[in-house]
Amino acid sequence: MDDLKTYAKNDEQQLGLVTIVKTFSDDICMEFGLDKCAKATFKRGELSTTQDLEIDMDTKIKELEQEQTYKYLGIDEGDGIQHSKYKERIRKEYYSRIQMIFKSELSSANKIKAINTLAVPVVTYSFNVIKWSLTDIKRLDIKTRKIMTIERLHHPKADVDRLYTPRASGGRGLIQLELTYKTTTIGLEAYLRKTEDLLISIVRHHETSKKTHSLVQEAKEYREELAAPVLTPNENEGPTTYAKRWLRSAGLKAETEGLIVAAQDQSLATRAYLHRIVKDGTNPLCRLCGQYEETIDHIISGCPVLSPTEYTHRHNKVATYIHWLICRHYGIETSTEKWYDHQPLTVSENQDATILWDMPVHTDREIKANRPDIVVKDFKEKKCLLIDVAVPSDKNISIKTTEKLSKYKDLEIEICRMWQMKTETVPVVVGALGMCRKA
Fold first, then answer.
1. Does 232 have pLDDT greater than 70?
2. Which domain of life is it from (predicted)?
């Protein structure tokens, strides 16, 4: 045990208790940290000054002077706990650690993980010891979001609830201090209620009899609040679901991830947003094409001006990565070890497979859709894969997938007849904002 506090009616009893503690400490070769020890005497609830507690010639515990404090379990105490003073110290340390984390070169996911690991425990350790009000806790959460907004980790109009949702469920994974405070209070009340101990029962009776700031009453209110049903999307409905893996493993910079999440939340100030939501008289038409309303979906996948340049480049990068992975799978040599530097050849082959890149397949009868992005001929398995890539708006993933499957049906039949291979169309359809089909 590192920290120990003993209680006694007078100095004689206290000396006996401390002597026993010292005897046990000597037996296990542990010494008193006298610079951290203190004796506090209270009379009628007020700190009074008596004399130091002398155990032996070499061991003396000093009397705590007026306005001095001692630290027990990390909390400064004296004439009671200095709540206001300690809350201010916690705030400063909490904000200091957050600022230190944001100055680092960590990815977005690791920055939030660092906040949860390094900064949040500074506050949560003091819950139900220091007198925090729910308003104080909410202010800490608000200030945290403000700092994240300044550092571009969080868009000011993005969904707040999603910020505190676990990354495995499509959120950002930040621990919410308000929720932690409520669950901690519920847990402490349950401990007081279930523990059969005389001293604990006294504490339980004291908290139950209080008319204001009662732990029991607060826990009851929080339990009822947190027991309310939470509406969540049913992943069994519909053919698509949010791609959650990129939130955990993409390693994106804080600004990039914050921007993507804000776009998914439809929170960016597009012209359509300013026209329909803000209603400031802004022309809602796209500033590039001038034909359609400038919505987020239009910008990421529907603008005819961006289609031959940005959209094509994005499509080719996805297809290039897939081609690079296929080459490595079949042991075909590539020009580089890095996929983003890979330049696909029109024909790549070895004794096991042939890979065609953006090359039309000539058939006996005319077929218009004869040019998938990648054609893989596997000689060992006697199998041919027609891979076609699309990066549509998230809401059009299902439509685009069905379109790809039907588009190459005739080509499948012809290849199966000509090459005597089992043929399959593999549509690789990824939403422009990270949504994909359920596996």
1. no
2. Eukaryota
How far apart are the C-alpha atoms of 140 and 142, rounded to whole Å? 5
Lookup result for tokens 């939130």: 247
Tell me: the pLDDT tens digits for 91-140? 999 999 999 999 999 999 999 999 999 999 999 998 988 888 999 999 99
Other CB atoms within a 10 A radius of the CB of residue 28 amount to 6
Task: Look at residue 60 in the predicted model and tell me its pLDDT.
Answer: 79
The edge-to-edge listing of strands for the beta sheet with 353-357 is 347-349, 353-357, 374-378, 383-390, 422-429
Residue closest to 214 by CA, chosen among 128, 127, 125: 128
Q: Where are the beta strands (DSSP E) in 70-110?
A: 70-72, 75-78, 80-81
Residue 42 pairs with which residues in a beta bridge? Answer: 47
**CA neighbor of 355 nearest in space, from 390, 331, 391, 389:** 331
Listed in sequence order, the residues at least 6 apart from 162 whose beta carbon sits closer than 8 Å to its beta carbon are 170, 171, 172, 261, 265
| Dist. CA 104–CA 109, nearest whole Å | 13
Cβ–Cβ under 8 Å, residues 253 and 108: yes
HSE at residue 367, side-chain half, CA atoms within 13 A, is: 20
Q: Extract the tokens encoding 241.
A: 């679901």
Q: Is the pLDDT of residue 319 over 90?
A: yes
Average pLDDT over residues 10-28: 81
Q: 379 pLDDT band (50/70/90 cuts)?
A: very high
Q: Phi, psi (5° rounding) for residue 325?
A: -65, -40
Tokens of 384: 């041919």
Per the CB < 8 A criterion, the answer to whether 392 and 436 are in contact is no
Yes or no: say if 344 and 320 are a contact pair by the CB < 8 Å rule: yes
Q: What is the spatial distance between Cα 375 and Cα 356, in angstroms, rounded to a whole number?
A: 5
- As a whole number of angstroms, the distance between CA 161 and CA 129 comes to 28
Dig out the tokens for 199 from the structure. 């001293």
Give the pLDDT mean for 40-48: 73
CB-side neighbour CA atoms (13 Å) of 74: 12
Task: State the average pLDDT over residues 166-183.
Answer: 92
* Tokens encoding 141: 């959460």
Token readout for 330 is 């079949």
Q: Is the pLDDT of residue 240 over 50?
A: no
Ranges 33-37, 129-133, 237-241: which has the least confidence: 237-241
Structure tokens that stand for 248 in this block: 């955990």
Cα gap 82→94, rounded to integer Å: 18
